[in-house]
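Thread: quick sanity check before group meeting

JM: Hey all, I'm pulling together slides for Thursday and realized we never actually wrote out the predicted structure for the chain we discussed last week. Dropping the sequence here so it's in one place. If anyone has concerns about the input, flag it before I start.
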Amino acid sequence: MKVLIIHNDLRAYWRRRLFFLHDFLKSKSIDFHAVELFGKGSPYDFESFNKTDAWWDCLFPEQSNLELTKHEIKDKVFSKFDAINPDVVIGGSIVFYSGALGLRWAKENKKKFIMFDDAKPSWVKRNFVVQAVKNLITRQADALWLPSDEYDAEYAPLYSKKKIKYLYGYDCIDNELFKFADDKQVDNKKLITVSRLVQKKNVKSLLDAWKFVEENDDTWSLDIIGDGPLSGELQEQKKELGLKRVNFLGVVPNEKIPGFLFNADAFVSPSLYESWGLVVNEAMAAGLPVLLSDKINAAFTLLKEGENGYMFNPNDANALKQKLTEFIQLPDSAKKSMSKKSLELINQMDFNYMGNELLQTLSFLESKPFKRPSVIARLVLSVWYGRYNTTEWDKV
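JM (edit): ok, ran it. Output follows.
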């Protein structure tokens, strides 16, 4: 069997996932290929494409989607697919080039298609017609790869589990990179957040709430890792509020982030929207309790209220103050218990879980006949190329 995964870019968190999947599937006699579309235009294009592995390719390493026509993109994608001739194509949501073109090629060549997605339908506002067309196209997929079964409540009413196979766990990280010890110290008196300094990360509200912490406690500090367009504004806010124990650490090399996480007592994120939030995985793999906004999808899978952290409404200033204070005032024994619970929960969402979910689905799909699209679906697929718009990523 040949399996091909395609997306706009496959950097950052995707790197280690794909190396794992390549070796894991190879051990099962499955040929695995990865195709990136664009080398430029991604929020992660600081990671240049320099892969030399024959199984991993970038079709437009020196270009962004803005420099190409949809026909140029489609022709290059189809040519690559024809050369590899995979039995199963894995692609992102059909709103993107990777999903739209991957699904179209699969249907035209009587192959199977798995779509991965971590955005909840109710959180993405579309008009009725646009949503109906998206639903029609998505229903042509053979399987949906979601972060966890917590997503079923939103996806299953739109995409019947009787007609589409569901699998889970692709939103994982290499947990071992962040694990230092099972018995973590909890007396550092430090909270940490890691994020781009943009509006949707809501760091402004975190600083407002931290003012309350400093007025009632003179021992705890807050580390902020990351940079972005709001950096200057947020540092000015720190001065205006008179905050003495907030440390802006800027950009930290990826290999050093595990150490910063491990030396904190908890992770906090007041984000106004995250389709998942992989930094939550990282924090928990480092043994941290987590204080998370209820606008972070990962919170509904990885956070157990009162067991490994707390959830709060990021639009309620008092809620964040309350949760920060509640955690800080916990006895060390409770903090240690939360730390162990975070490790226990994140260990259930690792690379092996991801690999086994995919392997079982590939076996299932191999036994199923080709799912022929309806006339209307074929017509829509023939005119929809997908898109690649990252301008909205940092907006609320």
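AS: nice. The first strand starts at residue 2 and ends at 7. The chain has a mean pLDDT of 93.
JM: adding both to the slides.
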